[in-house]
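Below is how a single chain appears once it has passed through the pipeline. First comes the sequence as given, then the structure the pipeline wrote out for it. We keep one example in the README because the format questions we get most often are answered faster by looking than by reading.
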Amino acid sequence: MNKIPFSESELKVVKEIPGRGGLVTREYDRPITDKENLRMLYEEDHPLWACGGRTGAQTFCPSLIPDNVARHFVYDGTTADRMKNDPLYDGIDMFGIKWKFVPTAGGSMEDPDYPHPLENANDWEKVIKFPDVDSWDWEGGRKDAETYLQDDKWVLTYMLNGAWFERLISFMGFENAAMALIDEDQEDALKALFDKTTAVYEKIADKFAEYFPQVDMFNQHDDWGSQQSPFFSEDAANNMIVPYMRRFTDHLRSRGIAADMHSCGHNESRIQCYIDGGWQSWGPQPMNDVDKLFEGYGDKIILTLTVNLPANMTDAEQREAADKFVDTHCVPGKKFKVNYTAGCFPFEEELYRASRKRYLEF
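Resulting structure:
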């Protein structure tokens, strides 16, 4: 990697972008784009500077995928405004499951008025209707997104529900899904089901590579835990889910798409499963000991770290906090993304300056 000398001119603000709640995002005169820096994070030894988890990225969840409509999560420059203005919008996902938006929760759940179609995994071939991915309007989606997708942004696609445990919950309900993972009588059938659901997502990845080459990363959802502990054992995860994850992440990488894991819950004891599953990054929720995870696994997976800055911090204190963060985390062999309190520009500037200089030393 060619080293680009640091200049204080890189901290010049070239644009301020208004956001929700009056928050402002700044763009600076960087030597490369945020997109290029994130690409370095995923593909090289380290980035040029510490990557902010919320900077330089663009969410792309097209309405042509039924799940995005059903789950009230469309971001493609066409129907997003309609979705936001219709908080009671409901829909049917790619497998025919009906979802209901819950305004107080800000998300969707399977419609309780419709029973789950599957009780036993052995019956999946007779019950589950698989989508015809080829029949979706990919060309129309490509045309719709022409002005929405920006080449200088790191384009991130969220894949809600995913192909494994969350998808199984939508088929069977939580209790039956958890039981199926450990029931020897259902093991072979469940593996065959995961084989086929994984193939659906491989097909979707192929279509994205063909019609939306701007997409840099898939964020695949599969929640594995509660506030206190994982839902199932490490042995169950390794036996029933991890091999299919690895197949899918290998497929993503072959298509030039980075693999990011979304898994809510107290899952720090399952991090090796995510690593073995081929995920390049994971954003642990705060109930996990993220510092411990970074110390033990920061050389094997990119973790999203969070810095919460008190509202009464002075500019000098913010800069000091940034320097301490860089000293602790910008170390050879370990990589991360960092989220920090929005609008804390002294911290943001010093984080950039200090990490930019530190990475020049490697």
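Residues 62-307 form a domain with the TIM Barrel fold (CATH 3.20.20.210).

See the next section for the split statistics.
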